[in-house]
Amino acid sequence: MKPLVRTQEEYLRRLRRERFLVHLIRILIFAALVAAWELAARRGYIDAFVTSSPSRLWDCFRSLMASGTLLHHIRITVAETLLSFALVMGIALLLSILLWWFPVLSRIFEPYLVVLNSLPKSALAPVFIVWFGNNMKTIIIAAVSVAVFGATMTLYHSFCQMEPDKIKLIYTLGGKKSDVLLHLILPGNIGTLLNVSKTNLGLSLVGVIIGEFLASTAGLGYLIIYGSQVFKLDIVLLAIVLLCILATLLYLLLSMAEKLYERRIR
Question: Torsions phi, psi of 102, nearest 5?
């Protein structure tokens, strides 16, 4: 047993070293890119007015933070993203349950879902402005339209792929369709729901930014448009960097939820 234990310990140590090495290389690559960007801007290899630089972004960040406007814009974008995400997941789950419960509906509406999912949502944003006005409601609707149709199709097809033998067993034991849904379909697709959530959280953020480009007076998308219009590209690039950080943090939160669920079912 001792050699086996020693082998397992060596394997775990090797995994930890590899994980540490991967994180270290990522950090070094990022630091090298930031340093090269700053050096190129200072030496005049690139035009800092057009491309900005890390130091200029830091100065812009401090200026906007001191004025209190940056946190306001971040809060608006985060709130719109989370609200859109909640609506997307709620609507998609409801629609996928309806399609599974009534197979005739799925045969009728599946082609429409495919078309709506393929339609470029940025083309609909101007129409939403005319219909709903230049307000947050338009932004939320635009964000929901980006993700809801694909999420519905993914969840519905996952529902349909549940093992038919288990479904037959529930019916054999006297269960009803509601029992199949509550005790098999929904519990058996929590993993799929988490995976869909990670995708749709990013899509909701994309939809919010599209909406803010056209129908907003606040938010990181508004900052990008405002900065480009007044030729303050430091603001534009700072907003883009903040969007990358925000998307990463939201993805990590859902990844943590997924890991907690995996530990719970083990």
Answer: -120, 90
